[in-house]
Write a structure and sequence with these properties.
- With about 270 residues, this protein is α+β, with helices and mostly antiparallel strands.
- It is built from 10 helices and 10 strands.
- α7 packs across α10.
Length: about 270
């Protein structure tokens, strides 16, 4: 896998990658753009799941919990990172409000042309390269801002209506005490079939999906409110604050109190860009 980088930007070029799922959702303090070239992947971003296919683009801002699940045995993609201080224009960063977009073949070629220009400047490394790299990233973001205004999201649920219903039911009721039977009844499937099919379609077990949504809500409350951890646990559907703490640490990698200290500034900055 080839990659190029300067102090603010990193670009990874397409190359065959063996499918490996992210074991848990994670967050980071930089902007991430994924441009799929070959293969299919599912992404869990915030509370939503997306099917990402060749020609699709994923936009992930700092502090955003996400996870990728690979469908194909191999895949290829461009990966562009830049730090939170590299682009300060709020209008350009507004495209990160859209997690997933599809573009036409012509537009996809334009996107990859800018990425190749960035690669060229990172190889060239003359007195003007950093200026050119920033200009190309800004042009990419302007394109994405325009593209994000058009309805183009292909969510994973569209090819299985029963799973669409199950996922929607979970998103609407995650604060309540949910059972497999309740979700199965809502989606008109047997519990065993729902459990198996949900995993096939989304790449997540139902309990894993429920906890992921609850933890995502907890992240927002931890960084955006002064509510106690016990209050947040209860509001997000966890009856036991100790279990909430264990689940949060397992998914995020730190305790709720540590998260509040370490990542609150990322949430604040992200909100300011919207």
């Amino acid at each position: 896998m080839l990659y190029f980088a300067n102090k603010d930007v990193r670009l990874e070029l397409p190359g065959p990658k063996i499918a490996q799922d992210m074991p848990t959702p994670h967050i980071h303090d930089f902007y991430e753009i994924i441009i799929m070239v070959d293969g299919d992947r599912r992404f869990f971003i915030h509370k939503d799941l997306y099917l990402c296919q060749p020609g699709d683009i994923m936009l992930i801002p700092p502090g955003c919990s996400h996870r990728a699940v690979t469908i194909s045995e191999t895949y290829q993609r461009y990966l562009l990172y830049f730090n939170e201080f590299f682009i300060r224009e709020t209008a350009l960063l507004s495209c990160f409000q859209t997690a997933h977009m599809q573009v036409s073949q012509r537009r996809f070629k334009l996107v990859t042309d800018y990425l190749e220009d960035i690669r060229f400047e990172m190889e060239k490394k003359d007195a003007y390269s950093d200026i050119m790299i920033k200009a190309d990233v800004q042009k990419l973001l302007m394109l994405f801002c325009r593209y994000s205004e058009e309805p183009s999201v292909r969510e994973f649920e569209l090819y299985d209506k029963n799973i669409q219903v199950a996922a929607a039911f979970i998103r609407a009721h995650y604060r309540e005490h949910l059972t497999l039977q309740m979700i199965a009844d809502a989606s008109f499937l047997s519990p065993n079939y729902l459990s198996r099919r949900f995993k096939e379609v989304t790449g997540f077990g139902i309990s894993e999906y429920i906890n992921g949504i609850r933890i995502r809500e907890a992240e927002l409350l931890l960084s955006g409110t002064t509510k106690s951890i016990v209050e947040i646990a209860d509001r997000c559907g966890f009856n036991d604050s100790n279990y909430f703490g264990d689940a949060f640490k397992r998914l995020i990698g730190c305790s709720p109190s540590q998260y509040r200290k370490q990542y609150a500034h990322l949430r604040v900055k992200n909100k300011k860009t919207k």
